């Protein structure tokens, strides 16, 4: 790359980074965006195969410890332009009003510095921009409405069983709001029910940064550098970020910048900040609060596998098709706080066999074979549970360096007792749904999904890392966007909120650039 | 002949018979899995040990498989697919597997005077049982505990087994589905190229 000076540098071209890039592409700012992974073409670089498509996940070393060490690869990461959103299952929900103030409403967790109403215009914008499909009347309207595309109509047996179970036990249910086309959009085709959403959508029916914000950013002149891993940030004597160091083709490079936007997800963002410490910022950048890396969260995502007399074939259709949000705040009546949602959730064989083994080490050999021979008779229903933020759940650095000379991160995680109560309640609910639908619930498979937190937002610089726009309290030209800024980990999937908050940050960054006199002449 | 207590529901289904319907990239991926090129990480001894180990851990699946586990694993190691650390560990999956295979041999020779793959089935089973449930003899398994090695290698073997089209046929999994997709929806409706519903389901 000839040019080494830009107004804005975005680190990470995932869900959040790509939204910022697309917005700033319409201004006169010069923008460069780097991503550690490649820029893939769905038709040429994807395959209908689980093992092959492992390449979409983050593959660098990470130490995962604690009482409940997290899976930091398969279920919670992405590497490459588009980020983890390339292979999300694309259930996109708004958060609930109470999600932004759990401290006030239930005396647990912390309040966000913004409310549902602050995010609402961005939710509405993203619902259209992402061409969400969903029911005409969604039973839980605050979580989504006015979907521009009709609800997904080809429902799998897995989903039909799930809905019939819910119906029988008196819970509401609906087809999920999805960032998956249910009808054509320009030259993109609707979903063909192929089922490999978590391996990347070859027909391009799923709406991801790769078919929205990335092309928009490129069209607007953003310079995109794939396979460029940012290794550190440096500040100048005025204590602003000035230089971004990165590695490309094994060579070290640097970019001079006026504004930096970190959008590298929940492990790499704090890792970069901690590693970039210097004499002016001895605890790492943006870390005067000591909270960089702290309050890391996930969502519990346990499955019940139930056996039915007839064939289900859970591989058919997109994995997540229907849901109930009835238990969203069920804790209040059941002796715990917050709650969960439930989904039908089909799995392909590698994922299912892996979860069998992870949950039961005796499930090898004949044991595994016997279970898997019934694969086509299994239905899989899942919960997505809120997880309470705890300071002790955190990203720190080890002394060992990776191939780029950056310390390998160490992630410590243990569940809060409330998380376990949610899990237990969800397990019993899932079992009763399966039984009511005529199945025999056989296996409870513990898993988790999504990462959030590590650079939480807030109004107080002593108890948060960034403000509600993602601007560092300590360094005004450093922004953090995406999952790391989350204060709580609601049970509604996070990414519609990630896209929406990124849009809100992008508008603010545009205004801020004018305030500090950045005018596109870098 | 079949020693297994349970049989496939789909004795005549062959997912590979549909391979011409798959997109070219997926065809290529499957072709190079079934006919893997030589990797460069596993030594011939390690391959023999791994094969014997797979036979001990998964006697169930071996007769039904078409893939060479050792070749595919070697290919994955060579392509640097096993750089990440398993949960709770600060060593890569690759290091854990390579060291573990060496330690297995070391202990087999110290204890029984023979390499693992030359031991009889009973002795192999006993050794594996001991290793899986413990840290292992500290004079051998110091750098990598035996149970960490076993959880890591089992997870890798499981992934390869369930990426084998022959096993897909056994379990009646439709396999790759692009560009064709699925169109028949509703109870007891399947696309005609999928495994035929087995007898008891024809209601
Ligand atoms: C299997 C799976 C299913 C999911 N399903 C859903 C769902 O149904 N609904 C939902 O709402 N969410 C879902 N998610 C979560 C969703 O994908 C994430 O919440 C979202 O993508 C996070 O956005 P982000 O921008 O913060 O990070 P990402 O999208 O992960 O982007 C981060 C990017 O930063 C890059 N990067 C990291 N470090 C560096 C560095 N040092 N230098 C350069 N680049 C770097 C990475 O390569 C990556 O591309 C799912 C996730 C997975 C893995
Ligand atoms: S199920 Fe639909 S959205 Fe998912 S990968 Fe297939 S075509 Fe794409």
From TrEMBL, chain A:
Short name of one Pfam family: GMC_oxred_N
Domain of life from the UniProt record: Bacteria
Record keywords: FAD, Flavoprotein, Oxidoreductase
InterPro entries: FAD/NAD-bd_sf, GMC_OxRdtase_N, GMC_OxRtase_C
Residue ranges occupied by any Glucose-methanol-choline oxidoreductase C-terminal domain in the UniProt entry: 390-502
Keyword Oxidoreductase: yes
Domain Glucose-methanol-choline oxidoreductase N-terminal: 10-276
Family stated for the protein in its record: Belongs to the GMC oxidoreductase family.
Name listed for the protein in its UniProt record: Oxidoreductase
Taxon lineage: Bacteria, Bacillati, Bacillota, Bacilli, Bacillales
TrEMBL record, chain B:
Pfam families on file: Gluconate_2-dh3
InterPro entries: Gluconate_2DH_su3
Protein name: Gluconate 2-dehydrogenase subunit 3 family protein
Source species: Pontibacillus salipaludis
């Amino acid at each position: 790359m000839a040019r080494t000076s830009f107004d804005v540098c975005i680190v990470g071209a995932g869900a959040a980074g790509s939204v910022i890039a697309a917005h700033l592409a319409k201004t006169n700012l010069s923008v460069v965006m780097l991503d550690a992974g490649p820029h893939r073409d769905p038709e040429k670089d994807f395959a209908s195969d689980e093992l092959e498509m492992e390449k979409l996940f983050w593959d660098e070393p990470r130490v995962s410890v604690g009482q409940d060490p997290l899976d930091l690869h398969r279920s919670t990461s992405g590497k490459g332009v588009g980020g983890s959103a390339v292979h999300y299952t694309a259930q996109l929900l708004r958060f609930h009003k109470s999600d932004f103030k759990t401290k006030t409403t239930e005396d647990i967790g912390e309040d966000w510095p913004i409310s549902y109403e602050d995010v609402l215009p961005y939710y509405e914008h993203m619902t259209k921009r992402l061409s969400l499909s969903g029911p005409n009347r969604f039973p839980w309207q605050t979580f989504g409405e006015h979907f521009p595309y009709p609800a997904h109509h080809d429902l799998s047996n897995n989903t039909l069983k799930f809905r019939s179970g819910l119906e029988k036990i008196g819970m509401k249910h609906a087809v999920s709001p999805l960032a998956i086309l249910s009808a054509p959009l320009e030259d993109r085709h609707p979903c063909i029910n192929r089922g490999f959403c978590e391996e990347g959508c070859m027909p391009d029916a799923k709406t991801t940064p790769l078919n929205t914000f990335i092309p928009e950013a490129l069209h607007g002149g953003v310079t995109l550098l794939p396979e460029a891993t940012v290794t550190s940030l440096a500040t100048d004597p005025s204590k602003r970020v000035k230089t971004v160091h990165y590695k490309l083709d094994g060579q070290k490079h640097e970019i001079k910048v006026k504004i930096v936007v970190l959008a590298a997800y929940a492990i790499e963002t704090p890792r970069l900040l901690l590693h970039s410490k210097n004499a002016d910022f001895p605890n790492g950048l943006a870390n005067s609060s000591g909270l960089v890396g702290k309050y890391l969260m996930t969502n519990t995502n346990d499955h019940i596998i139930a056996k039915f007399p007839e064939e289900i074939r859970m591989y058919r259709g997109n994995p997540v098709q229907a849901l109930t949000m009835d238990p969203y705040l069920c804790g209040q009546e059941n002796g715990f706080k917050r709650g969960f949602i439930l989904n039908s959730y089909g799995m392909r064989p590698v994922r299912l066999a892996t979860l069998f083994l992870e949950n039961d080490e005796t499930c090898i050999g004949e044991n595994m074979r016997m279970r898997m021979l019934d694969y086509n008779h299994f239905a899989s229903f899942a919960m997505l549970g809120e997880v309470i933020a705890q300071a002790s759940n955190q990203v720190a650095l080890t002394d060992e360096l990776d191939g780029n000379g950056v310390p390998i991160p160490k992630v410590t995680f243990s569940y809060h007792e409330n998380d376990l109560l949610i899990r237990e309640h969800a397990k019993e609910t899932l079992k009763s749904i399966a039984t009511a639908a005529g199945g025999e619930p056989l296996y409870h498979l513990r898993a988790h999904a999504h990462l959030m937190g590590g650079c939480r937002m807030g109004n107080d610089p002593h108890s948060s890392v960034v403000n509600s726009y993602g601007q560092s309290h300590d360094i005004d030209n450093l922004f953090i966007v995406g999952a790391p800024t989350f204060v709580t980990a609601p049970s509604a999937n996070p990414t519609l909120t990630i896209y929406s908050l990124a849009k809100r940050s992008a508008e603010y960054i545009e205004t801020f650039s004018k305030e500090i006199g950045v005018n596109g002449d870098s | 002949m079949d020693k297994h207590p349970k049989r496939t529901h789909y004795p005549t289904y062959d997912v590979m018979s549909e391979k011409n319907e798959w997109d070219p990239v997926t065809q290529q991926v499957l072709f190079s899995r079934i006919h893997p090129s030589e990797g460069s990480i596993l030594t011939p001894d390690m391959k023999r040990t791994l094969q014997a180990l797979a036979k001990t851990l998964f006697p169930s699946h071996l007769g039904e498989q078409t893939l060479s586990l050792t070749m595919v694993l070697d290919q994955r190691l060579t392509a640097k697919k096993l750089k990440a650390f398993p949960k709770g560990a600060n060593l890569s999956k690759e290091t854990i597997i390579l060291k573990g295979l060496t330690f297995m041999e070391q202990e087999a020779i110290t204890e029984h005077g023979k390499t693992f793959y030359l031991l009889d089935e009973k002795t192999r089973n006993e050794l594996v049982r001991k290793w899986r449930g413990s840290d292992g003899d500290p004079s051998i398994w110091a750098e990598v505990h035996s149970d960490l090695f076993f959880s890591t290698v089992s997870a890798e073997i499981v992934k390869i087994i369930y990426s084998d089209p022959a096993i897909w046929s056994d379990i009646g999994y439709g396999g790759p589905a692009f560009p064709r997709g699925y169109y028949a929806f509703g109870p007891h409706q399947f696309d005609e190229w999928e495994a035929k519903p087995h007898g008891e389901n024809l209601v």
